[in-house]
Amino acid sequence: MRPHNGKQLYGIQKILTTLKMGMNKELKELSIKQKLAMNYVSKESKLTRIGNKIYTNTFTPYFPSLAYDRFLRGVISVASGKPFPVVTNFAVTPRCPCNCWHCSFSDRSKKDTLSLKQLKKAISDVQDMGASVIGLTGGEPLLRDDLEDIIACIDKRSMPIFFTTGYKLTQERVKSLKRAGLEIPVISLDHYKAEIHDKGRRKQGIFDYALNAIKLFQDEGFYVAVSFVPDKTLVSDREKIFKVIDFFKDIGINDMRLTSPILSGKLTSKPEERLSAENVATIFEIQKKCTRTKGYPGVFAYDFFESEKYYGCGAGFNYMFIDSQGNACPCDFTMLSFGNILERPIGEIWEETSRYFCTPGPICYANISND
Questions:
Q1: Is 308 exposed, middle or buried (0-12, 13-18, 19+ CB in 10 A)?
Q2: How do residues 240-262 score in pLDDT, each as one tens digit?
Q3: Rounded Cα–Cα distance for residues 91 and 89 (Å)
Q4: Residue 34, class by beta-carbon neighbours within 10 Å (0-12 exposed, 13-18 middle, 19+ buried)?
Q5: Percentage of the chain exceeding pLDDT 70
Q6: Count of Cβ atoms closer than 10 Å to residue 170 Cβ
Q7: 169 within 8 A of 209, measured Cβ to Cβ
Q8: pTM score
Q9: Where are the domains of the chain?
Q10: Domain 82-370, CATH
Q11: What phi and psi values does residue 136 have, to the nearest 5 degrees?
């Protein structure tokens, strides 16, 4: 059993820290109802202190920081019904050592890749638009030798995170990523059994790479998250899925993105892969257990936060995805694009996108369009 980095905050410590995080001039414009909604976000999130930084989840910049202040501006805009690209993800390469059963990138071109110069320009543009979290994904970002240069161009206005399988990661590379300014690594991990994870990712040995990456990042003091995509069979087996959650706790994970199968890429037009209402209830239970129980990782379960009860799908409203060819999309899981950043200004594309995605969706837009 490995302890997670940092200290989880509970009770009076969490209350006082939450109040401190909320004493921000950016929040003065919010109504009482909106402030109560933000309090609900805090209630369903786990606060972790590492050094002088307070982490909430992988969608929120750490506090205190300029990126956090900008995040609040985005929250205010979204709360008032105005689209705002709070989070923007870039696919920095289509290359990947895996061939995952649920891959949403499988329908996209594997040929062209944005150059470092083009990425720097695009990142600068989305930062000027207000993005407070910038994610680097793929493919496998580690396959780019200039990944550190990409991270380094993200200034303090945004928090850089990246998504990885952990493929062939070394301690030297981790140190290099840290020097470049990486804030949160998110490692793909779907099971406690190597053979099951490897089978789902279609790559023998990728489980060991993932565990190695987690340890290397922990050794360097990172707030470490996992990306967990359970299939319907696993979610239907309560004993096994909670055993996976216990496994994440035992290896010291700080945070978890829990994504249900989405009808995109390899799962397009496969509605049988969608979770049942009973399955979704299990996901809700995981969200609440992890948030409220000491030692467990925090969790951002999409089924929970994107439900009508809570917020909804923010694709094209507070979220944007740019693929490795430069196509700007509402999110990673939809092929719909209103333009390419190599041909049109990003701001112009975002304006057109947000006219169509002018409010959060009641459920995942990709599941609606690809069902």
A1: exposed
A2: 999 999 999 999 999 999 999 88
A3: 7
A4: middle
A5: 92
A6: 12
A7: yes
A8: 0.94
A9: 7-72, 82-370
A10: 3.20.20.70
A11: -110, 120
